[in-house]
Design a protein that fits this description.
With 446 residues, this protein is an alpha/beta fold. It is built from 20 helices and 16 strands. A 5-stranded parallel β-sheet has the order 2-1-3-4-5, with helices on both faces. It has a 5-stranded parallel β-sheet with strand order 7-10-13-6-14.
Length: 446
């Protein structure tokens, strides 16, 4: 179970205030990322998960309220926001709270008051799964996390659906760990499509000694092995019809009979099933029993494909890099073009394909910085390569900001002081942005 500290996103352009808050947050055991502009914070909020965001209203590049409204309009899953400002007004506070902000503090304020609010928000938003089992930063995956927290206390059968590789087993394991944080109860995962039909009954229900040739001893099946815990039946749509009847009986009666035996054996399990197939269509075609479908469809959790939750791609990619770095002790990072390629690739194999792609690149690349070629080689189509150069939100925002600053510099004959004043930022901030965006003054005579 991870014990990583709660992370705060601080958006504050005042150097003295920002530095003081950073030091206090770290003293209190929080991790904090400090951003001086709304633009910098916007890019990171799209790819990183925070427990709380604290934002000034008057920022050098954008009004904090406008930033909040734009983030909401983008459909981004946001942490709770606390706004702070030296120019407080009641109507501003009311407007922000109506938009969904958590609170509003006017400078000067007592830091202890802010810390109390942060502490309460972190406790309220804390997931019993712990950071190691967070499913993603997208709104859809956060909704699934919230659903799991509600479902964990029930005994209803759960059906998880989604394309191959989206992480259905991970969702099932998260549900199991929510129910049993100490991880003492068994979690038994079975791929129904990987078992031969002739062996399926014996594997699920076990067998007695002498039940068939080669049965030299009795064996507990998956149902008995999962007693007191969770039985995860993956790809249940691949189960033969004859076996579906026996499975239905076991679910209804909560007892099983071993192959070659007569004695009913009670089992207490949490049953979680998963499939990438459309079971309703299979029922209509007579390929899946309708009564079994309704028995396992008590609670339905659909997991969307990776291409429909783009916010999770870079978040997952960074975690896979950390995982492989811990295994090989070799640190890797992504070239900016590689991050564009990751976001714009279609990922037909979903999270599994993403993980395999990064693992392969980490093993084969001789360089610490992974390029798009390291990740995809010749597999990236020409269309995807073209999309990768222009496609992501991050690229669009960076390009827009660079163009805007260059226009301002040109309008003021590249005089830094005047340009910074026109942009509403300090000269230091302008120099930092120019360096970050690789903006340089044109040579004389060009």
């Amino acid at each position: 179970m991870s014990t990583s500290p709660a992370r705060i996103c601080l958006i504050e352009d005042d150097e003295i205030m920002g530095e003081a808050l950073m030091e206090r947050f770290e003293m209190e055991g929080y991790a904090c990322d400090w951003f001086r502009t709304g633009q910098e914070a916007r890019l990171t909020l799209a790819s990183k998960r925070y427990q709380v965001a604290i934002s000034d209203i008057r920022l050098p590049d954008i009004n904090g309220q406008v930033l909040f409204e734009e983030l909401l309009a983008d459909g981004m899953a946001l942490p709770p926001f606390i706004f702070i400002t030296g120019f407080g007004a009641i109507d501003d506070a009311v407007r922000l709270l109506k938009l969904g902000a958590e609170d509003y503090l006017t400078k000067p304020f007592q830091v202890n008051v802010l810390l109390d609010k942060i502490r309460n928000l972190c406790q309220r938003g804390q997931t019993p799964l712990g950071e190691a089992f967070v499913l993603g930063i997208s709104s859809t995956m956060r909704e699934i996390e919230a659903m799991l927290a509600r479902v964990a206390t029930s005994s209803g059968t759960v059906l998880i659906t989604g394309e191959s590789g989206v992480g259905k087993e991970r969702v099932a394991r998260a549900l199991h760990d929510l129910r049993d944080p100490q991880d003492k109860r068994p979690f038994i995962a079975v791929n129904c499509g990987a078992l031969a039909e002739s062996l399926l009954e014996a594997e699920l229900f076990g067998y007695e000694k002498g039940a068939f040739t080669g049965a030299n001893r009795e064996k507990k099946g998956y149902f008995e092995q999962a007693h007191g815990g969770t039985l995860f039946l993956d790809e249940i749509g691949d189960m033969p019809l004859a076996m579906q009847v026996k499975l239905l009986r076991a679910i209804q009666e909560r007892t099983i009979v071993r192959v070659g035996g007569e004695k009913p054996i009670p089992v207490e399990i949490r049953l979680v099933c998963a499939t990438h197939q459309d079971l309703i269509k299979m029922v209509k075609r007579g390929e899946f029993r309708e009564d079994l479908y309704y028995r396992i469809h008590v609670i339905h959790i659909p997991v969307p494909p990776l291409r429909e939750r783009l916010e999770d791609i870079l978040w997952l990619a960074e975690r896979f890099l950390e995982e492989f770095a811990a295994e090989s002790r070799a640190q890797h990072s992504f070239h900016p073009a590689a991050t564009q390629a990751l976001v714009t690739f279609s990922w037909p194999g979903n999270v599994r394909e993403l993980r395999n792609c990064i693992e392969r690149a980490c093993i084969l690349s001789p360089n610490p910085v992974l390029t798009a070629k390291d990740l995809f080689g010749q597999a990236l189509s020409s269309n995807e390569q073209e999309e990768a150069t222009v496609g992501s939100l991050t690229h669009h925002l960076r390009t827009t900001e660079r163009h805007y600053i260059e226009q301002a510099l040109t309008a003021h004959q590249w005089r830094i002081k005047e340009t910074a004043a026109a942009l509403g930022i300090t000269r230091k901030n302008l120099w930092e942005k120019m360096k970050k965006l690789e903006i340089s003054a044109p040579e004389e005579g060009t």
